[in-house]
C-alpha cells in the first residue's frame, strides 16, 4: 500500500508541475504578445494558443529537469531507479510494432472524431511554419517523438510504476499507471482519448515489465505518436484502404502483444 501511495503522490506532483509550467509558459507567450503591441485580450489568448507546441516543449523539459533534481537531491541512482538500461533488439522491435499498430488502429477508428488537442496542434504547426518554412513540422517532431515520450514515460513508468511495483505486483503497477496515463489526456481529447490512452498506457506498462527498460518505453511511446505525424492534417483516406489498414493493424497488435506477453521477462 505504501508504494501505491507514493506512486499516487508522484503522479499528483507530475500533474501539478505540468499545470504550473504550462500556465507559466502560456503567460510568458501572452506577455510577448502584449510587448509586441497587442491589446485585444482574445488576440493575446489566441497568440498563446498558437504557441501550444512551444508551451508543451518547454513544460516537458522543465518537468524532466525537476524530477532529475529531486532524485539527485535524494542521492538516488537515477539510471537504476528509472531503469534507464538497454534491452535486447527483439524487445525493441516488439515494443515498436505493438505500440504503433495499436495507435494506428485507434487513429483509424476515431478518424471522424473531433479531438480538440489535434486541432490546436494543427493550428500551432501552421503558425510556426508561417514564421519559418518547416519550423512547425520540426516543432511537432520534437514534441511528439522526443519531449512527450521522455517526460511522460519518466513520470508514469520510471517513477509511478516503479514506486508501486516495489510493494505491490506488476499488474497493479500497470493498471494504476495506465489509469493516470489516461487521465492526463482528458483535457486534450475527452473521454475518447482517455479510454484509448488507458489501453496504450497498459501496453507501455507491459513493455516496461517485460523489458525492464525505460528506454524501450521511450521508443514504444515515440512509435505510438507516429500516426499523428504521418496522418497530420487528417488526409482523406479511401474506405477500402481504411478497412485494410484497420485489419492489418489489429492483427499486428493482437499477435504482437501475445508474443510480447509470452516472451521471457528480461533480467532486472
Bin the strand percentage. under 5%
Q: What string gives the helices and strands in order?
A: HHHHHHHHHHHH
Number of domains: 1
Tally the beta strands: 0
Please report the number of helical segments: 12
Q: Compute the average pLDDT.
A: 90
Find the structural class using helix and strand composition. mainly alpha
Give the biggest sheet. none
Distance between the termini: 23 Å
- In the predicted model, the low-confidence regions spanning at least 5 consecutive residues are none
Identify the overall geometry: globular
Rounded to an integer, what's the Rg over CA atoms? 19 Å
Helix content: over 70%
Question: Could you describe the 3D structure shown?
Answer:
The two termini are 23 Å apart. The chain has one domain. The protein is 82% helix and 0% strand. The protein is mostly helical and 268 residues long. Helix 6 (116-131) packs across helix 7. It has twelve helices and no strands.
Core attributes:
268 residues, mainly alpha, 12 helices, 82% helix
Short structural description:
The chain has 268 residues and is mainly α.
List the helices and strands and how they pair.
Elements: H1 2-35, H2 41-50, H3 52-73, H4 78-81, H5 89-109, H6 116-131, H7 135-167, H8 170-183, H9 186-211, H10 214-224, H11 226-230, H12 239-262
Amino acid at each position: 500500500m505504501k508504494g501505491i501511495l507514493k506512486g499516487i503522490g508522484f503522479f499528483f506532483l507530475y500533474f501539478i508541475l505540468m499545470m504550473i509550467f504550462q500556465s507559466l509558459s502560456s503567460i510568458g507567450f501572452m506577455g510577448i504578445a502584449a510587448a509586441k503591441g497587442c491589446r485585444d485580450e482574445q488576440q493575446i489568448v489566441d497568440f498563446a494558443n498558437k504557441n501550444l507546441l512551444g508551451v508543451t516543449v518547454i513544460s516537458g523539459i522543465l518537468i524532466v529537469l525537476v524530477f532529475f533534481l529531486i532524485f539527485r537531491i535524494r542521492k538516488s541512482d537515477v539510471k537504476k531507479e528509472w531503469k534507464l538500461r538497454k534491452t535486447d533488439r527483439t524487445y525493441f522491435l516488439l515494443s515498436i510494432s505493438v505500440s504503433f499498430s495499436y495507435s494506428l488502429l485507434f487513429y483509424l477508428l476515431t478518424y471522424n472524431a473531433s479531438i480538440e488537442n489535434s486541432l490546436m496542434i494543427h493550428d500551432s504547426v501552421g503558425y510556426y511554419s508561417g514564421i519559418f518554412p518547416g519550423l512547425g513540422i520540426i516543432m511537432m517532431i520534437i514534441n511528439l517523438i522526443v519531449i512527450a515520450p521522455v517526460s511522460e514515460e519518466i513520470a508514469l513508468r520510471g517513477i509511478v510504476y516503479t514506486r508501486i511495483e516495489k510493494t505491490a505486483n506488476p499488474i497493479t503497477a500497470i493498471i494504476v499507471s495506465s489509469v493516470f496515463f489516461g487521465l492526463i489526456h482528458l483535457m486534450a481529447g475527452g473521454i475518447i482519448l482517455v479510454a484509448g490512452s488507458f489501453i496504450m498506457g497498459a501496453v507501455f506498462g507491459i513493455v516496461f515489465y517485460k523489458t525492464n527498460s525505460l528506454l524501450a518505453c521511450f521508443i514504444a511511446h515515440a512509435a505510438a505518436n507516429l500516426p499523428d505525424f504521418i496522418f497530420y492534417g487528417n488526409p482523406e483516406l479511401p474506405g477500402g484502404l481504411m478497412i485494410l489498414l484497420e485489419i492489418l493493424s489489429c492483427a499486428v497488435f493482437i499477435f504482437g502483444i501475445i508474443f510480447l506477453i509470452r516472451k521471457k521477462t528480461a533480467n532486472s
